[in-house]
Specification:
- It comes from Carboxydothermus pertinax.
- GO terms for molecular function: aldehyde-lyase activity; transferase activity.
- This is 3-deoxy-7-phosphoheptulonate synthase.
- Keywords: Transferase.
- It holds the Pfam family DAHP_synth_1.
- By secondary structure, the protein is α/β, with parallel strands linked by helices.
- It has one domain: Alpha-Beta Barrel (TIM Barrel), CATH 3.20.20.70.
- It has nine helices and ten strands.
- The strands form two sheets. It has an eight-stranded parallel beta sheet with strand order 9-8-7-6-5-4-3-10.
- The longest helix has 18 residues.
- It starts with 15 loop residues before the first strand and ends with a helix.
Length: 267
């Protein structure tokens, strides 16, 4: 049986529209923001900087899955309200993670895109629940998932009625321990060939090291990714989560200047 998300089932590329942003139309989209929403004043200032830098979609975690139960796990609903306020001020859509089927309704109330993180890629109850929502879903590849398993997770969402799925390659766990994960560039390129869904890259989680993020991001774009999602923080050393992989403002501006040149040459 051919999967609904496969290129054989639908040869034409799916383009997902979020407000006035199109994902999958050949013009790579830039999603950026801090790992977690840490406070209203801080996030609004970050959102304004990101808009000025050329970002098209804001990211930020309100509910954070953390390996340690003692680590900062987000502001919850308060964080969602801050994201909504940033959207109102900047006009940019926002993406944030939903971790629990019970939270799908409240997250969908405030967010423009619902993210399923790598730890929940095979949380089938959650996948079915977001499949009932009329909003795009960004599905990250699991820590040790094959491409087929990744596609089957997307199939759960599509089968529930929601065809607005964006796939995100964010690195997989291997024996390598220098980087946080191993960015599977070949897997991302294969996904672009095998599915009609948009495929983006997350070089921040893939590398875990800020000095590697920019080059991996450019490599993904050069290989045909429909976009990238990058973590940015004004003071990474003070970030409440994932500071090591976050770009500071100067690093991000340098990356965006290269991306803009890359996009202009690709037209």
């Amino acid at each position: 049986m051919e999967l609904k998300v496969s290129r054989k089932s639908k040869s034409k590329k799916t383009v997902i529209t979020v407000k006035d942003v199109k994902i999958g139309n050949g013009d790579p989209v830039i999603i950026a923001g801090p790992c977690a929403v840490e406070g209203e004043e801080e996030y609004i200032a970050e959102a304004l900087f990101l808009k000025e830098a050329g970002v098209q979609i804001l990211r930020g975690g309100a509910f954070k899955p953390r390996t340690s139960p003692y680590a900062f796990s987000g502001l919850g609903v308060e964080g969602l309200k801050i994201l909504a306020k940033a959207r109102e001020i900047t006009g940019l859509p926002v993406v944030t993670e939903v971790m629990d089927p019970r939270d799908v309704e409240i997250v969908g109330k405030y967010a423009d895109i619902l993210q399923i993180g790598s730890r929940n890629m095979q949380n089938f109850t959650l996948l079915k629940e977001v499949g009932l929502v009329d909003k795009p879903v960004l599905l990250k590849r699991g820590l040790a998932a094959t491409i087929k398993e990744w596609f089957l997770a997307a199939e759960y969402i599509v089968n529930s009625g929601n065809e607005q799925v964006i796939l995100c390659e964010r690195g997989i766990r291997t024996f390598e321990d220098y980087t946080r994960n191993t960015f599977d560039l070949a897997g991302m390129v294969a996904a672009l060939d095998l599915t009609h869904l948009p495929v983006i890259a997350d070089p921040s989680h893939a590398t875990g090291r800020s000095e590697l993020v920019g080059r991996v991001a450019l490599g993904a774009l050069a290989a045909g990714a429909d976009g990238i999602m990058v973590e940015v923080h004004p003071h990474p050393e003070e970030a409440l989560s994932d500071g090591r992989q976050s770009l500071d403002y100067e690093e991000f501006k340098k990356l965006m200047s290269v991306i803009k040149r890359f996009k202009s040459q690709s037209v």
